[in-house]
Amino acid sequence: MANESITFSCLACGSRLTVPADLAGVTGPCPTCQTMIQAPAASDGSINTPGSQSSPAVLRPAPRQLPSRSGQVEPFAKQLPEPNYSNQAFNDVHPPPPFAHRNQLIRFLIPASFVIASVAIGFGVTNILKNQSKSQSARVPVKTSGARPILHDTSPTSPSEGPNEPSTPSRANELPAASSITEANPALPPGLEPKSPREFAKEVLDKFLDAKTLTERLSLIETRTSESELAKSPLASPLPEVKNITVSIEENNAVEQVADFYHMVDFDAGENRTNPQTILVRIRGSADPKVVVDPFLDSYGGRLADYAKSPSDKAGYFQVIVWPLASCYDERVPNHEKKLTLKLLPQVNTKEIALAYFGRQSKIAQILEDGTYSLAYNKAKACTVMLRWNAEDDPNQPYLEAVALRTFDWNP
């Protein structure tokens, strides 16, 4: 029996084991799973002899299969809770990192700064709109206790122009007509409307035309002419009957606070004829309207016609209606093919008082060709023009030369 063996299976892992027959009933660990097992008795197991065909097989445990999962689950990271450094118990275990409290302060200041900036911007825009509203209301005429409105303007006045320099183009100076200015509504009796600047100007012009003496007119006029010269002018006596009066042009200069009203006045000349003239009524700031009589004396009073009759050594300034022509047809003018013409009129579309000429390369020609000024060829405009008698081109044939345009209006 010494060569006999017992073959059996481990009850724990199923491994087949072969031990000598003399170990039957002995307890020992399974060489595969280390479970304590007991070898069976010879009658319970399978006994193998040396001469049998089957040799004892050394069995090895089969590999264990791990249970398969039904679905692949992606691992994920769990977000840790936000540290609360204001909790003293937490700080005792986890001390706050450097600058933690400063970071919390910054998080608070950023939205607070945005709110403050938004409020400041809104406050600034509100102030700008209020200032604009005040600036516009400052220019609205208001009615005084006198006979005319006061034109208020907060714009600074510009320096006066030089005597020989033309004013800036009217497109920069001209504002909407004075008749379009709305007045503040003062307390008036029912049924009465406030008068416009045009109506105040017309009232003063009517008084000027109806006056019989210079004394009556002195308080109604604006002039640079001495009173002694005025006493020799038509203003010292009654003027002819007026056939028609119309306002042809209204100009406003907000910088100088001046409103000009050019009136076309047709005087009775007898035999169903009229003597057309242009009379300017000016309103300066809060002053009463005045009739600007120097242009009236240049045309109606004959000062321009007298100057144009015969050569003179002195130059002169005249306020008339100017009508430029891009040609010169008077062959008596030296080098007439290189000259251009200024028609000097008492009123638009009337016979000229005189003709003056200027060169194609002159300052006046440059102004007319510029295209940005209020004066152009074949366009009439009230201007202050400087004239002289030219005897240098041909001493035997002097002619009236237009030297410069001082202003594009009848300002002094």
Main attributes of the structure:
five-stranded antiparallel sheet, five-stranded mixed sheet, alpha+beta, 17 strands, 23% helix, 412 residues
Using only C-alpha atoms, the radius of gyration works out to 57 Å
Strand content: 25-35%
Low-confidence stretches: 51-60, 137-165, 167-185
Helical stretch count?
9
Structural overview:
This protein has 412 residues and is α+β, with helices and mostly antiparallel strands. The protein contains nine helices and 17 strands. The strands form five sheets. A five-stranded mixed β-sheet has the order 8-12-11-10-9. A hairpin with a 6-residue loop joins strand 1 (5-9) and strand 2 (16-20). The protein is rod-shaped, with a radius of gyration of 57 Å. It starts with a strand and ends in a 5-residue tail after the last strand.
Quick structural gist:
This protein is α+β, with helices and mostly antiparallel strands and 412 residues long. It has helices at residues 88-93, 100-137, 170-173, 197-210, 214-218, 227-230, 293-299, 303-309, 363-370; strands spanning 5-9, 16-20, 27-29, 36-38, 46-48, 142-143, 149-150, 221-222, 242-253, 258-270, 273-284, 290-292, 316-325, 339-345, 354-359, 381-390, 399-407.
Lay out the secondary structure.
Layout: E1 5-9, E2 16-20, E3 27-29, E4 36-38, E5 46-48, H1 88-93, H2 100-137, E6 142-143, E7 149-150, H3 170-173, H4 197-210, H5 214-218, E8 221-222, H6 227-230, E9 242-253, E10 258-270, E11 273-284, E12 290-292, H7 293-299, H8 303-309, E13 316-325, E14 339-345, E15 354-359, H9 363-370, E16 381-390, E17 399-407
Parallel strand pairs: 8-12
Antiparallel strand pairs: 1-2, 1-5, 3-4, 6-7, 9-10, 10-11, 11-12, 13-14, 13-16, 14-15, 16-17
